[in-house]
Amino acid sequence: MPSVFTVTSEDLALPLEEHIMRASAALDAHGHVIALAPDDPADPARRRMHTVRSALEGDRIAIVPLTLPPLARTLLGEQLRQLSGTDLGPGVLAGAARLLSYYLHSGALLASVARLDRVPVGVGTHMKSLVPGRHFAVLAHPEPYLGEADPAHVPPGPSYRTQLAVAGNALDPAWIAGPLAAGWGTQHLRELPLPPDSARWWGTSRLVEFTAYIGDVGMLYQLVTSVRRDTCTWCGLEVIGDQCLFCATRIGERAAPAKHAAAARQSVETPRRPQLEPHKR
Fold this sequence. Notes:
Layout: E1 4-7, H1 16-30, E2 33-38, H2 44-56, E3 61-66, H3 70-83, H4 90-101, E4 105-110, H5 123-128, E5 136-141, E6 145-148, E7 163-167, H6 174-183, E8 189-192, H7 198-202, E9 207-213, H8 217-225, E10 230-231, E11 238-239, H9 262-265
Helix pairs in contact: 1-2, 3-4
């Protein structure tokens, strides 16, 4: 197994010394660590990971910032763990995190959008959320969507075969299990625990989070291996995309070590997304 994966969140905080010890043990056992972190540079969990990386003074930890909601981030970590059992190396797996995020359709059923700041909320919709009994369908990724949870209308979804994960029980999930699952052509409905940081991410604790994802590891492998690979000129890892996520070297350039390239890491390029054949429903 070439890498160990971690999905960071503020609620999973450990004392810094213990965090460093665990990261060091993971590196000794597995060689590389890939951390999926929130996209906000000021996020406490992401800052802790950067502190751990600096303390270990190594370029075997890749911190991948993502705009995904918590459930989608968890599922992406699961997909990468599946792929780690194949012949893909750590540099390719780190780049695959950005690539595979394109194929996640993530949203939530919310009782209120009054504190939602992840998608644009109009004044009219904000006023509707003050009326008890309203439920809102929100899609945060890959494109924002906001509307009432109407059985006759569902947000645009994937055109390829997916499974649907559902987390949370604060609201009736019938709209998700019924109209949404049917409209998205879901093959399988899967219940998961609600991630600890979902309520903060969505701005309310009255929610049910959902994500459509590719559950077939063979299809995931095909997507990743269809992308061009290059060799990092600094650390020698095979990578996809325009930058090595371990040492921050731009592909095709001989850049400085990671400690001199922190700014470059904030603007990591994403591999071009391969097109999947549409699923005929």
